[in-house]
Amino acid sequence: MTTTSHPKTPPEIGGIGHSIRRHEDARFIQGAGNYVDDIELKGMLHMAILRSPVAHAKILSIDTSEAEAMDGVVAVVTGELMAQHNLAWMPTLSGDTQAVLATDKVRFQGQEVAAVIATDSYIARDAVSMIFVDYEELPVITDPRQAMAEGAVVIRDDKEDQTDNLVYDWESGDKDLTDRAFAEADKVVSIETHYPRSHPSPLETCGAVADVDPITGQVTVYMTSQAPHAHRTVFALVTGLPEQNIRIISPDIGGGFGNKVPVYPGYVIATAASLLIGKPVKWVESRTENLISTGFARDYHMKGELALNSEGRILGLRSEIWSDQGAFFSDAQPTKFKAGLFHIVTGSYDYPAAHVIAHGAYTNKAPGGVAYRCSFRVTEASYLIERLVQNAAYEIGMDPAEFRSLNFIKPEQFPYHSPTGFVYDSGDYEAAMRKALGIAKYEELREEQKAAREEGRLIGLGLASFTEVVGAGGSDEYDILGLKMFDSAELRIHPTGKAILKLGVRSQGQGHETTFAQIVAEELGIPVGDIKVVEGDTDNTPYGLGTYASRSTPVAGAATAVISRMLREKARKIAAHLMEASPDDLEWEPGKFSVAGSPDKFVTIQDVAFAAYTNMPPDTEYGLEGVHYYDPPNMTYPFGTYVVVVEVDPETGVWNVDRMVAVDDCGVRINPMIVEGQIQGGLTEGFAAAAMQWITFDEDGNCIGSNFMDYLVPTAWETPRFELDETVTPSPHHPIGAKGVGESATVGSPAAYVNAVIDALAHLGVRNIDMPLLPDRVWSAIQDAKKG
Amino acid sequence: MFPPAFAYSAPESLDEALATLTNEGESARVLAGGQSLIPMMKLRLASPAHLVDINNIPGLDYIDAANGYLRIGALVRHNDIVNSELVTAHNGAIASAAPWVADPLVRNRGTLCGSVAHCDPEGDWNSVMLAARAQVVAQSTSGERVIAIDDFVVDFFTNSLEPGEIVKEVRVPKYAGRGGGAYLKLERKIGDYATVAVATQLQLGEDGKISEAGIALTAVNNKNTRAIAAERALVGEEPSDEIFKEAAALAAQAAEPESNVRGTAEWKRNVVSVYTRRGLEASLAQARA
User: What's the per-residue H, E or C state across A664-726?
Assistant: First the structure.
């Protein structure tokens, strides 16, 4: 079903479908946000970290004496000191262990070796350079296949049962069925490509202010966290401190994109230092520290194959991937899914057989593999299938759009059971694609492309018709460290009819303070300006797993709708009492109950709220508040089609995006303006991945890409102009039909850009260029194709 | 940012600034726009003991076209050049390069003279200055001297200033007759250093033949480098596709690029050739306009 959303509430209520301005922006655009680095506490000390200059080495000795002797230095913390308190290692969210401060070896360049606590941050940094470490260098591994080769040096020799560099072997789908599909195929199309290591690089780097009260034992940590509740539990497990005495406050967060999901050594060291010294300790990392040591993304070496019959129907898919996990397995994947949700790689297409194998390997690179604006490896999956499909169309001799159309899952097939075990909730892929092609004037563009080729100009049209899987997730399948992936909402309506909504998730710029208020406004008719949204303080919000994987709207948004409806039912009883009518005789419209048949006889939600504290029916509990923990029955499956038009300079390989058309279907849009902002941001990040971003390493494991001169973030100048549109296929199981949208565009767009460049060169026989598509790679592909 | 500690002074006259530079010796650095120096201090690649901030000194922010030169003073920002009609009227290569220097934020603050003095082989201005045969006016407590740009650009981040000297002005001779210039830059994004860039300048004689040619390359050698053989091939010739192609091939030979994350050496050499040809075409079109 495709519908267009129209608001059901008037603008003065501002419920779902209103593009109201973001409540939080008043403070952000006036420079009045409150980020971790804005926190100043009495007597606060400053911490800086010494990081390893080499990628793999034994630590022979650490000499801290000169640093300790400097004026203003309060303490120098080493792994040895941390080990005395059993804090030299910590668990990761993936069930591995990670060094907090290195004791035996360093395993990547940038690893934490020691920390200085000083009276100001300049002294702390000066003192870091006065710590002298003797390293004995070891062989360096920078590639997962190199890591898994016979005789490779074992990186994680700290783990007793680890005899090689394998983190996991994981598979999904049916191997025998898939082998049969390939045996029957008329044609097999394959691709081998690398989704390079990138970095979420939020503009606010990671940091913490730890404040341990030596008298009460209360631990308060202000922290750049996308998941404060889960982090509090990890803190309790790491330190053995009672959880009720740990308070994690995640204040305003300047972007996260998955980078602020892992627990970082700096948080733990600052907390330990505050505990030992008895004063607050602030740690805020530099840009370079953020880029070289915190959760990177992707770094997937992928092989994919499609089995096709002669008519161009897909019969099956095979994929094998080698994941570079870095030195510690520290990304937060659901326990059951070591390679995240990569097995969504079957994409938007209908075929019975698929088999996916994933190998994770330790390397001497920074740990991570975080879901960068992505629902657990869906980006890599979407990229692989959309590249494969485009290439399959060339081999079959069909237009890539028609090839997709032939193979799409049809609207009547939903709920659709995928060959790797997903149940796609809803979709109309054909409708979204036709809309995008129509806006782009696809047929005319194909004609222009032909004419341009005659003149020696290279124009390319790239498509991606992605399907995402977001909103993790149901308790039957999804957990992190055993914590089920529900989320929560607590709603309290005060006597004057104003409300506070508290959530277990944490906005990092997504606009939760506005969007979630709109859900309450929709369900209860309270004007959106009368609703305050509170997040990020574990003492003051209900438990939740946090914001990542586009899960806030699918999970916490659902919890918000459900608790709002529960309070509405209570409100109905109160309204009936006030009007001396039966609850069953009342009719609801946003903001008021009226008696059926006599619309003049009504009470407002504000009247009801007042009564809830002043005049309740005899058998009803006072107050109008409640909390709901929502356990999603399924994931949601946003989708869409992106069309990119590029022109490639044949002499230099430089390419420019002439057009980018994006039709997204994320179900019901709560605040269309915010949704469009999310999509524009994601399309920009997708462009960055396709065009310019990669963090690479030399053979010694030195990180190339340690600042914004080397690791490129696009500006408004190079970012293409986007033409956005929508289809609306509501999620059938979500209370308000929403699907989550924060990540769709990052997931779906890289393949569209790359496919466009490949399409420009397809007549020369070019089928793959690895991202980023730097001009020299494009030029070399042209040269190689010309040589044949 | 967390640089090492440093002393700072902000003199209000050039004499005072020069005196401080002389007294402090080589550990002192001039702060004009700070768009290269400050990032280097942030990364602790530079740790000057003393910064002499010249921004309060009056009379250094001039652009003029007197006495046969287009003259640019020490406090002229890149963005002043973008917006200068005098520059557009007198030198096509400078006008063409200015909008491609760094990004708008850097252009608002950074100075041409500072960039010339910095001698970063990936910087834009020294190629333009080499192609335009610029002169650097250096001043110290003992007086003023004029240094030809070819003698000024010594090596990777190395100029020929003596201790105590500052770059007071950079100037280029006005075209003798008809002239034009261009700067073509390939960069990964706005604000990036050049991956490859080529500055070209042509002057035409009364007979329509090329009377003077300047070609210089950015980011493909250990310093900004003139393609002298290519220049020589052009002088005295009738402009033509063939001669431009020949010059382009010779320019590529003057490049000794490294393969790195920005691209392979082979491709960079190719870009030098393509951009030299295109730059010469643009310069010619401007000279004839």
Answer: EECECCCCHHHHHHHHHHHHHHHHHHHHCCCCEECCCCCEECCCCCCCCCCCCCCCCCEEEEE
- B163-197, pLDDT tens digit by residue? 999 999 999 999 999 999 999 999 999 999 999 99
A685 min Cα distance to partner chain B (Å): 14
Contacts of B275 in chain A (CB under 8 A): 652
The predicted model gives A406-435 an average pLDDT of 98
Average pLDDT score over residue span A509-518: 96
Structural domains of chain B, ranges and CATH numbers in brackets: 7-53 (3.30.43.10), 63-173 (3.30.465.10), 178-288 (3.30.390.50)
B contacts of A714 (beta carbons < 8 Å): 189
Nearest CA in chain B to A716: B190
Residue A326's contacts (CB-CB under 8 Å, 6 or more residues apart) are: A108, A296, A299, A362, A363, A365, A366, A367, A368, A369
A449 catalytic, yes or no? no
Separation of alpha carbons B76 and B114, rounded Å: 9
A522-549 average pLDDT score: 96
Distance from CA of A191 to the nearest CA of B (A): 23
The answer, yes or no, to whether residue A82 has pLDDT greater than 90, is yes
Where b means 16+ CB within 10 Å and e means fewer, A321-342 reads bbbbbbbbbbbbbbbebbbbbb
What mean pLDDT comes out for the span A81-87?
Answer: 95
pLDDT tens digits, one per residue of A603-620:
999 999 999 999 999 888
For residue A669, give the CATH number of its domain.
Answer: 3.30.365.10
Closest chain A C-alpha to B270 CA, distance in angstroms: 7
Residue burial A661-684, b: 16+ Cβ < 10 Å; e: rest: bbbbbbbbbbbbebbbbbbbbbbb
Q: Are residues A279 and A338 in the same domain?
A: no
Residue A3 has pLDDT above 80, yes or no: no
Distance of alpha carbon A741 from alpha carbon A678, whole angstroms: 7
Quote ipTM for the complex.
0.96
Q: Both tokens of residue A169?
A: 């072997």
What's the helix, strand, coil split of chain A in %, to 5?
30, 25, 40
**Which among A300, A437, A274 has a CA at the least distance from the CA of A374?**
A300
Nearest to B133 by CA among B149, B120, B146, B117: B149
A710 touches chain B (CB under 8 A): yes
Q: Catalytic residue among A506, A513, A743, A767, which?
A: A743
Residues A451 and A514 in one domain: no
- Report residue B106 CA to chain centroid gap: 15
**A461 and A314, same structural domain?**
yes
A390 and A306 belong to one structural domain: yes
A779 with B4: Cβ contact below 8 A: no
Last residue of a domain, one of A630, A655, A670: A630
Work out the average pLDDT over A327-338.
90
B192 contacts in A (CB within 8 Å)?
709, 712
Tell me the pLDDT band of A5, cut-offs 50, 70 and 90: low
Exposed (0-12), middle (13-18) or buried (19+): which is B289, by Cβ within 10 Å?
Answer: exposed
Total count of domains within chain A: 3
Q: Are residues A727 and A584 in the same domain?
A: no
Angle at A628 between CA A624 and CA A632, to 5 degrees: 150
Question: For the segment A715-763, what is each residue's pLDDT rounded down to a tens digit?
Answer: 999 999 999 999 999 999 999 999 999 999 999 999 999 999 999 999 9
Cβ separation A775–B270 shorter than 8 A:
no
User: Three-state SS for A544?
Assistant: coil
Contact A718 B190 (CB under 8 A): yes
Choose the catalytic residue: A109, A226, A449, A678: A226
Contacts of B198 in chain A (CB under 8 A): none
Domain stop point among A609, A630, A651 = A630
